[in-house]
Design brief:
Layout (H helix, E strand, L loop, with lengths): L1 E9 L2 E10 L5 E5 L6 H8 L7 E6 L2 E2 L5 H10 L1 E4 L11 H8 L9 H7 L15 H13 L5 E5 L7 H18 L2 E5 L11 E6 L2 E4 L4
The structure holds adenosine-5'-triphosphate and magnesium ion.
Length: about 220
């Protein structure tokens, strides 16, 4: 996957000003940057949830920005797992049902119960989101993004409401998807202690992405 010269502005206020990024299968990439620097915007563009003003996004030689909407929809459905900054669970479905809802009929999917167990949620399977803590909700959202084993996993601060131990579990799970299953993983985080599982750490600043000088 390759992004070239991606730009985006909100109300003519530039946010992304020529972002380049190449991600290979098997790579886990961390993205850091000040609040408001455009990290979530970039992730939404990568997830085909938002069209940038200009630039190219190539996946296996195909330009996804000029692909038709049906093709983009199928990619979002089948190839991309997204963990939003807020969990966005369905209010009237239990933990277990949140995963069953999105489960595709594919051979490569993960066992949802095992996944929830790895994330320490086995005792919450039949609970509705309103009775979960913020960190539990966030872990359900992580499990939901991984259950179909998508080729591209995008996570926007997935450890923000987690304690250190649970944060590590989530980061190690994401990194393992990349390493053991040859997936592409991109994680935004504010938590420096979570970055050592990443293969590379990039800094988004002044509308550009560059290797972080501190990592
Ligand atoms: N839909 C929108 N309309 C107008 N401006 C927006 C919109 N979404 C984001 N912005 C602005 O664009 C800039 C980048 O926002 P973005 O959410 O991408 O930043 P971020 O790096 O994810 O920040 P944070 O670390 O706080 O989550 C901010 O100044 C924000 O106010
Ligand atoms: Mg954000």
């Amino acid at each position: 996957m390759k992004l070239t010269n991606i730009t985006h502005a909100y109300d003519s206020q530039p946010v992304l000003q020529g972002v380049d990024l190449e991600v290979k299968p098997g790579e886990c990439i961390g993205i850091i940057g000040p609040s408001g620097s455009g990290k979530s915007t970039l992730l939404q563009i990568l997830g085909l949830l938002k069209q940038p003003d200009a630039g190219r996004i190539e996946l296996e030689g195909k330009d996804l920005l000029i692909a038709d909407e049906e093709e983009r929809r199928l990619l979002r459905l089948n190839e991309i797992g997204f963990v939003f900054q807020q969990a966005h669970l369905v209010p009237y479905l239990t933990v277990r049902e949140q995963l069953e809802l999105v489960q595709a009929d594919s051979d490569s999917k993960q066992d949802p119960l095992r996944l929830l167990d790895v994330l320490g949620l086995s005792h919450r399977l039949n609970q509705l989101p309103q009775f979960l803590s913020g960190g539990e909700r966030q872990r359900v959202a992580v499990a939901r993004a991984l259950v179909n084993r998508p080729r591209l996993i995008l996570a926007d601060e997935p450890t923000a409401s987690l304690d250190f131990e649970n944060g590590r579990r989530v980061m190690e799970l994401l990194a393992a998807e990349a390493r053991n299953h040859n997936r592409r993983v991109i994680v935004i985080t504010h938590d420096e202690r979570m970055l050592d599982v990443c293969d590379r750490v990039l800094l988004l600043q002044d509308g550009k992405l560059q290797p972080s000088p501190r990592h």
